[in-house]
Prior knowledge:
Strand order of the largest sheet: 1-7-6-2-5-3-4
CATH class: Alpha Beta
CATH architecture: 3-Layer(aba) Sandwich
Radius of gyration: 18 Å
Order of helices and strands: HHEEHEHEHEHEEH
Largest sheet: 7 strands, mixed
Helix content: 40-55%
Strand content: 5-15%
Number of helices: 7
Shape: globular
Amino acid sequence: MALIRSGIHMLWMLLTVIPVAFWMVATAPFSGAKHMYESAKVFLACAVYGLRTLCGVNWRISGMENLPGVDAAGRVLPAILLVKHQSTLETFLMPLIMPRPLAYVFKKEILYIPFFGWGIARCDMIHIDRKQGKLAFQKVVEQGRRLLGEGNWVIMFPEGTRIPRGKVGSYKLGGARLAVETGVPVVPIAVTSGKCWPRRGFIKYPGMVDVSIGKPIASIGREPDDLMQQVQTWIESEMQRLDPEAYPQS
């Protein structure tokens, strides 16, 4: 039954991404970044709520009170979200639950994915060419600084790729380096999506996914490696608390 439901969900995502992508491409010359972002969220909502309806995957969120708000002048406080990455679910879910527009940092190859990539290319986000080395990070800093100044939050997956449930990937320093360069705090987020939507898995299993948002960690005066170590320690400790079955050794 899970296989059949997962197949229906995949078909549902295909049927919804095509018109949304065409709409975004067609209206991009006449629309601003906010319109493109809201258009993309239409597909994400279809995918995520379809996942709940068709496959029985639900989620619960804790720690929303830890997210930065606004200052005394009413200006949006910036943040860089560093998120545990186990499946596609958190990629789709985060824009729907966050109170600010998100700017993803991702490799440019994603832009070539039919329909999905074409749509995301119309959004104001940070796509990088890893072959450019230092120039790629300079682009992240330049665009990240601009987007943060416009009231967006930058979101990154510090492990770089989806990691199997119960495993720890290599936490890369890009997110911490961006935070130190811009003086913006990082917000660590643990997500147990691998329980229901395994890495590179086609079948989605019914269950509850926990999203736990940690308190902001200041970046001013910090070294990137020290900052990322604190992020990793919090995320992985929280993952063990939320999903103890996946970490029997702990």
